[in-house]
Amino acid sequence: MIDSTKYINIFIDHQRPEIKQVTILRKVRVLRFLFEYLELIDIQDLYDVTKMNVYDFLLTKSWRSQTKSHAQFVLREFFNYMKEEALTQFDGYDLYPIIITNKRDSILSYYSEEQIRKMIDSIDTSCKCGIRDKCMITIAACTGLRASDIVFLTFSEIKWDKNIISKIQRKTGVLIEIPITDQIKFLLIDYLKNHHPNINSEYIFINSVNNLPFKDAKILTNIIKKAFLKANIDISRKKAGAHSLRHSLATNMLKNNTPLPIIKEVLGHTNINTTERYISVDIEGLRRMSLEVPTYD
Fold first, then answer.
1. 196 Rama sector, left if φ>0, alpha if ψ -120 to 50, beta otherwise
2. Given this structure, which CATH class describes domain 113-288?
3. 19 burial class (0-12, 13-18, 19+ CB within 10 angstroms)?
4. Is domain 4-95 in CATH 1.10.150, yes or no?
5. Which residues of the chain have pLDDT under 70?
6. What is the model's pLDDT at position 259?
7. How far is the C-alpha of 29 from the C-alpha of 10, rounded, in Å?
8. Is the dihedral angle over the CA atoms 156, 157, 158, 161 positive or is it negative?
């Protein structure tokens, strides 16, 4: 049996200090899948692994092409390091000389403004978690903040005097300042005055089951999904979470003729090329906004 811990630790030791821990964990997850497969086919030593073994491993995964591209980059990096340590027969560039990526291979899930309003209005605020859930979902729908930035929102990040949320994004480490609407402000005040448990915590949103801060941002996906289903909105062929609300906000802003640089600032992107991905489904909107090319003699 291959000592996967040994090789993964070598891989982690090669990571640059500026690489975020969450990124390293994503890479390690791919490697754990690889070692599970190698154990399954009874490979005893990493040096015995062939390129065909690695190719066959990826074939066992029903990942989207973008996810597979990510895995290929991780595997290329891993085998480069292992070759440097004389632990494999080949390096990463022997394995994958070229990696083709297609970030537009899937259309991000989109919901109209009417569907989102219907979903938010369907939330039962008389139940124990109703106001909290409505507050979290409204923030996601109106600000485009990521799930982790909402679930782990702190009191110090709400600037009541300026009507903004000011925080360092957990994914990018970049400061973002987002205006909050009166609707969000009133929901927050209602939740904090009437529904927030009396505990000493820096976090605003609390798990009502144990009166502790949430441990995982995925809880917001479950809350949003339940709200869509309660509103009888079909999500059978779409994703339904904070990211779909984030994408829907960007697309609806574009449909309302909001300039791309403003959408970029709202989403907290550092590169406008990232923002452009969010408009890939609105071809008709782009056509309406395009200018006619002048003709010259």
1. beta
2. mainly alpha
3. exposed
4. yes
5. 101-108, 277-297
6. 87
7. 15
8. positive
